[in-house]
Design a protein that fits this description.
This protein has about 240 residues and is an alpha/beta fold. It is built from 8 helices and 8 strands; from the N terminus they run ααβαβαβαβαβααβββ. A hairpin with a 4-residue loop joins β6 and β7.
Amino acid sequence: MTSQVNADPAELAKFSELAHRWWDPESEFRPLHQINPLRLDWIQGLVPLQGQRALDVGCGGGILSDAMARAGAQVTGIDLASKALKVAQLHALEAQTPNVSYREISAEALAAEQPASFDVVTCMEMLEHVPDPASVVRACATLVKPGGWVFFSTLNRNLKSFMLAIVGAEYVLNMLPRGTHEYAKFIQPSELAGHCRAAGLEWQKTRGLSYNPLTRRYWLNDDTSVNYLVATQRQA
């Protein structure tokens, strides 16, 4: 009997189709390139990455994985989108990024294989693309060492996030390909907090991510009504 993989084939196909553009900072992935330094600095402010063993769940083309490796971590990036992973591997070779490797495996399968193996686990902009986000949260909690850190980022579910993240970003400003996000899959902080509690992760910090379409700039703040980041720790 084959186990059901927690992935939406349509989502994997969508990101695979765009894989060759992942490292083009002016492509559909421009927002990821812009927010990556903000994410990295926030993570580093809570847990310096030098010498840490880090896992990037849903790594895509490797933008965050690459940056964490350059910050001194030993990084494994995992994803189920084959083409995006090949792009990540190619970029690591071309850029000669040290201490980063990539695998095509689900978080759940890796959790069964390597429990309590990582100091830091990141799962950014991924939970809103899978059928069962609670399963991914549980896997991340299993993968991190006791006392280790797990970071999530996702989209809140409310009228404002629908207007900005879907109507604004995909249809008005054309920042993202149409159909990138599905509103029903957005996750309210209270829901994510429940998943974390059930998985044994203690909620430590939350930050919001805002965007100004006129200046085309992102910044972190306390407004979690649209995009938000969460830092959790596995109970020791």
